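REQUEST ID: PR-0412
SUBMITTED BY: lab tech R.K.
PRIORITY: routine
TASK: structure prediction, single protein chain
INPUT:
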Amino acid sequence: MSSLWLVDIESPLLTEAALARIDDEAGPDRLAWNTFQTLALWDPDVWVPRFVEVACGEGSPFEALEWSGSSVRPWGASLAHPGAADVVIDGPEALIMAVATMDPDPPVDVLRAAALESLGHTVGPDHQVGFVIVVPPGTPDLGPWLEVAAEDQREQAGLVELIPGSSGWLTWRDLAELALDLAEESDELRGEAVHRLVSQVQTRFPDAEL
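STATUS: complete
OUTPUT:
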C-alpha cells in the first residue's frame, strides 16, 4: 500500500525512534520523511530555491544563495512539539528549518518559537536561518500569522534570529507539485519515487488534486 511506503528505507537515519514516529498514522513524520527524502534525490541547488520561492514568495534572500551540497535531515533539530516533525536543510550559506504538521489550523507562533529554541542548541547566533511551515491543503493564508510571530520573536531574547523575508509556508500539495516538476525530466528510479509520493499525498488528502 502506498500509505506504508518508505523511500530510502535503508537509511541510517531511520532509527528505532524514527520508525516509531513514522508508525504513527495520524502524525506527519512518514509523509515528511518521504517528501523531503524524495526531493533530496535531486541536487539541492535545483529544488531548494524553488522550495523557498513557493514558501516565502519571490525575492526571498535565500533564493540566490548556494545550496549545492546541502544536507537534508529529518528530525535534525529534535523539535519538541507533539504533532509536528522538523526537517533541517543545512546549506553552505544558510539553514532552513521546515516544520511539518497535519493540523489545518496550526499554532504558528508556538511552532516557530519551538523551532527557534531547538535550533538554538545547534547553530550559532550569526548563522543565517529561515523558517518554513508545511500544512495540509486548504489551510488559510498563514502570512499574517507569520508576521505576528516575527514581531513576537524579536522581543524574545536567546532565540535564533531569522533573516527578514526567509519565513513562509506551503502545503503538502505544493511539495508534491514541486516533486512532479522535477520528475518531468528524470530517470526511472526517481520518477517512481515521485509517483509513490504523489499517491501518498492524495491518500492523506483526497481533495488535493494533482
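NOTES: The two ends are 19 Å apart (CA to CA).
REVIEWED BY: pending
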